[in-house]
Design goal:
Shape: globular
Number of strands: 17
Strand content: 15-25%
Radius of gyration: 21 Å
CATH topology of the largest domain: TIM Barrel
Number of domains: 2
Distance between the termini: 49 Å
CATH class of the largest domain: Alpha Beta
Number of helices: 15
Helix content: 25-40%
Mean pLDDT: 97
Length: 464
């Protein structure tokens, strides 16, 4: 039975408030879904609560927010490792996803959410839900499991990918009008539901799969509802070539011409923006979801994150999907984000541990348009909170828990997860999903999917 009030005491609290205050031996008092008080334990000791959690030797911080994830790809984790991008899409990922059933979509979403909760993610942006994945079933799963999610419906009207024409696997092709109608239906049914935890967005396919007219139409619909939209942009150099050859311009000018810039847009990856385009992104408050693991694995390149942060571009973090990252662990993603740019620009001072945590919390809240409610631990904000155990070999000694979290941590150290004041995991035990059932279902559905798609996934070495 869920408690109506919770007192978390004696923790090392990363508030992420405007002063970026850290409270040692701090406490936080929650009633229903709201943080009512926060401060030193001795200042809150009079609070009574249905549940008291001793957070000694634990970090208490805002829940992590993954701003670019593919729920459906958890089921196809590791299906196309060490493969070039176009082959990765054409021969494996699209073929598998193009053979999904609605049950596959739900099972994959549950697997993904179980992993996200286990590793400290409380909110996410699912970037593209195909009709065949079963939007309604996925939304019901999010409602039941208790996470906060923006669910984006795929919108497309062409079958290309950047400057490669007609390469989409048939099972992944969708009709534009049907997609728009389904988005309208799901918006009416699910947007703002589950105590405000569920949002319904437009998930535009990448350049080459959406005509200019449809881009403008979706931008108009987004603002009329209102809701938000997301798309892959600048993930591959082919995007740059596509807009240059077809429109005689660069990525941000193309986006401006088609009404795609603004705080209601999340561009995934954003690797291949020119330096001159960063001011445009900053001025328009367009969000970038940085996905370092995926970008490294697929050799897509390095986003100009240090320059983006300096220019004032809103940057958040995303794990992407099971075949491109292979985990949904945002703490690992923070580590990569704080490491790769130092080497790439030969400057150990860029993208600090603090920057990485801000991107994974406040940056994500801004991208989702909920920064007035989540992303920091403050009086009056919603209780989306995680506890991370510092009493671990890999985090000892922890004289600087902020640094330790980013450079030494991983999701296995997450102890407790709270969303909307509801405990989803306590003492590493999932409360809203049965972990064994989730894994058994995933294994069963994965085998059947591989057989249906005619894909064999095995090691390159000899198996006896």
């Amino acid at each position: 039975m869920q408690p109506k009030s919770i007192l978390i005491k004696n923790g090392y609290i990363l508030t992420l408030n405007s002063k970026r205050e850290i409270i040692e031996k701090g406490s936080l008092y929650i009633e229903n879904d709201t943080i009512l008080d926060i401060g030193k334990t001795k200042e809150l000791k009079g609070q009574k609560a249905d549940l008291v959690i001793d957070a000694s030797n634990k970090i208490v911080m805002p829940g992590l927010i993954d701003t670019h994830t593919h729920l459906a790809q958890a089921l196809i984790r590791g299906c196309a490792d060490d493969v070039s991008l176009v082959d990765w899409l054409k021969k494996y990922v699209w073929v598998l996803q193009g053979n999904f059933t609605k049950d596959d979509g739900r099972v994959s979403a549950e697997l993904c959410m179980a992993e996200m909760i286990r590793t400290g993610t409380t909110s996410f942006i699912e970037c593209m839900i195909h009709t065949r994945y079963g939007f309604d079933g996925i939304a019901k799963a999010v409602e039941r499991v208790g996470m906060r999610g923006a669910l984006s419906k795929i919108i497309m009207d062409s079958t290309g990918y950047a400057d490669s024409a007609d390469i989409m696997y048939p099972g992944m092709v969708e009709d534009a009008e049907a997609g728009l109608n389904e988005t309208d239906e799901m918006y009416r049914k699910w947007h703002g539901k589950a105590n405000g935890r569920i949002q319904v967005w437009y998930g535009l396919r990448s350049l080459g799969a959406v005509t200019p007219e449809l881009f403008k139409d979706v931008a108009r619909r987004t603002r009329e509802k209102p809701t938000r939209m997301t798309m892959h942009l600048g993930e591959v150099i082919d995007d740059v070539r596509y807009v240059r050859e077809n429109f005689g311009t660069n990525l941000t000018t193309f986006a401006r011409q088609h009404d795609l810039l603004g705080p209601d847009m999340v561009f995934a990856h954003g690797i291949h923006f020119e330096d001159s385009e960063l001011k445009v992104l900053a001025d328009s408050k367009s969000n970038i979801s940085h996905c370092p693991a995926s970008n490294m694995k697929l050799a897509s390149g390095f986003a100009k994150v240090p320059q983006m942060l300096q220019a004032g571009v809103p940057v958040s973090l995303g794990c992407d999907g099971g075949p491109s990252n292979n985990t949904y662990d945002m703490i690992r993603e923070m580590r990569l984000a704080a490491l790769i740019h130092k080497s790439y620009v030969n400057d150990p001072l860029v993208v600090t541990a603090e920057d990485a945590i801000e991107m994974a919390t406040l940056g994500g809240a801004v991208a989702m348009g909920i920064h007035d409610r989540v992303g920091s631990l403050e009086k009056g904000k919603i209780a989306d909170i995680i506890l991370i155990n510092l009493h671990e070999l890999g985090l000892t000694p922890h004289t600087n828990p902020v640094s330790n979290l980013v450079y030494s941590g991983n999701g296995e150290y997450v102890d407790t997860v709270i969303v909307n004041g509801r405990i989803l995991m306590q003492d590493k035990h999932l409360l809203t999903l049965d972990e064994q059932t989730v894994m058994e279902n995933a294994r069963e559905h994965s085998v059947a999917l591989m057989e249906r798609a005619g894909i064999e996934n095995k090691p390159k070495w000899l198996v006896r």
